[in-house]
Design a protein that fits this description.
This protein is mostly beta strands and 71 residues long. The chain contains no helices and four strands. Helices cover 0% and strands 46% of the residues. The strands form two sheets. It has a two-stranded antiparallel ribbon. Strand 2 and strand 3 form a beta hairpin. The mean pLDDT is 90.
């Protein structure tokens, strides 16, 4: 008996991202609505913006938020 198969890899439609929000003093930003901007930079010192997106998120009681990059 012979078996032949071909597998196909599929790239994800989005990348899961999770972080804890803090203010400039390092304090947690808890239970608040935030706009989070994600970007990819290239070139010397990151001078060229290659990709950017913004997400509206809400932090939990620990400052944690999640989003999906690329949706």
């Amino acid at each position: 008996m012979a078996f032949a198969g071909i597998g196909f890899a599929q790239s994800p439609e989005a990348v899961n991202y999770q972080a804890v929000a803090r203010d400039a003093s390092g304090n947690l930003i808890t239970t608040q609505n935030l706009d989070v901007r994600i970007g990819i930079h290239s070139g010397v010192g990151g001078a060229t913006m290659e990709y950017q997106e913004t997400h509206a998120v809400t932090t939990n009681q620990f400052g944690l938020f999640t989003l999906k990059i690329g949706e």
